[in-house]
């Protein structure tokens, strides 16, 4: 078999990985914040490099081929290393200031950049996800993560679901405006239950980037 025409780009590997996780190119495009044609182009370019199809395309979505599964398994390691590198760069840019999560890093046994780099990315991610899940869902403050342009809810904790009076299954994937009305000053929100009752809360939002895509994290303190 001839050698690859070039090395894969991280964006191409990330796109294939997201396609596998989301199950469709349209969903991957939404998750990555790019167009569906751009997703298809990246996957096609990667398939040209490998020399074989990496996704099985059908009317119900996409799934990995056997060769695609091999590529994704290795791509996840590269992407985890990229994220660790970006975190280390961000830490260096703080000019010696102690990060706000330095205590948590110590508890996880990786207080220094070198200690974190020595740990397997899969183990690091699993530990971090467990901590985030406990804090996220145990918080009495409602937290919702949305797409800044569409308002589509990507994740919400139990407190937010209680505030809008809907189960998590009815919250995810819907525009937050369908469940709550923000005031123009973006400081107060009102949510109406399906039974007609109304609750009010104070809100604060912060724009962040997750997985290379812009997101809006909003905290709601019910009155």
Main β sheet profile: 6 strands, antiparallel
CATH superfamily of the largest domain: Winged helix-like DNA-binding domain superfamily/Winged helix DNA-binding domain
What's the number of extended β-strand segments? 8
Beta-strand content estimate = 15-25%
Taken together, the total number of domains comes to 3
Please describe what this structure looks like.
The strands form 2 sheets. Strands 4-3-8-7-6-5 form a 6-stranded antiparallel beta sheet. Strands 1-2 form a two-stranded antiparallel sheet. Mean pLDDT is 80; it is low at 113-120. The N and C termini lie far apart (66 Å). 46% of the residues lie in helices and 22% in strands. The chain folds into 3 domains: 1-93, Winged helix-like DNA-binding domain superfamily/Winged helix DNA-binding domain (Arc Repressor Mutant, subunit A, Orthogonal Bundle), CATH 1.10.10.10; 98-131, no CATH class; 139-222, 2-Layer Sandwich (Beta-Lactamase), CATH 3.30.450.20. With 223 residues, it is of the alpha+beta class. Strand 6 (188-192) and strand 7 form a beta hairpin. Helix 1 packs across helix 3 (36-50), helix 1 crosses helix 4 and helix 2 crosses helix 3. The protein has 9 helices and 8 strands.
Topology:
Elements lengths: L9 H13 L2 H8 L3 H15 L4 E4 L2 E4 L1 H27 L9 H6 L5 H5 L3 H18 L3 E5 L6 E4 L1 H7 L3 H4 L8 E3 L5 E5 L5 E13 L2 E10 L1
Helix pairs in contact: 1-2, 1-3, 1-4, 2-3
Keywords:
single chain, alpha+beta, Arc Repressor Mutant, subunit A, Beta-Lactamase, six-stranded antiparallel sheet, two-stranded antiparallel sheet, 9 helices, 8 strands
């Amino acid at each position: 078999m001839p050698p690859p025409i070039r090395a894969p780009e991280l964006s191409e590997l990330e796109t294939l990985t997201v396609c596998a996780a989301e199950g469709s190119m349209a969903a991957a495009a939404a998750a990555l914040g790019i167009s569906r044609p751009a997703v298809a182009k990246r996957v096609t370019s990667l398939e040209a490099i490998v020399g074989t199809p990496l996704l099985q395309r059908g009317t119900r979505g996409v799934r990995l081929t056997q060769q695609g599964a091999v590529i994704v398994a290795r791509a996840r390691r590269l992407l985890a290393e990229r994220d660790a590198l970006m975190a280390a760069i961000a830490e260096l840019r703080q000019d010696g200031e102690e990060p706000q999560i330095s205590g948590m890093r110590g508890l996880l046994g990786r207080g220094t950049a070198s200690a974190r780099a020595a740990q397997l990315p899969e183990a690091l991610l699993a530990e971090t996800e467990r901590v985030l899940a406990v804090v996220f869902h145990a918080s009495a403050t409602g937290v919702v993560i949305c797409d800044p342009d569409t308002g589509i809810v990507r994740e919400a904790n139990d407190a937010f679901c209680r505030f809008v009076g809907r189960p998590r299954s009815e919250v995810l994937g819907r525009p937050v405006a369908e469940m709550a009305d923000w005031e123009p000053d973006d400081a107060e929100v009102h949510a109406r239950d399906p039974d007609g009752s109304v609750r009010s809360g104070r809100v604060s939002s912060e724009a962040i980037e997750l997985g290379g895509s812009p997101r809006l994290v909003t905290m709601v303190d019910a009155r």
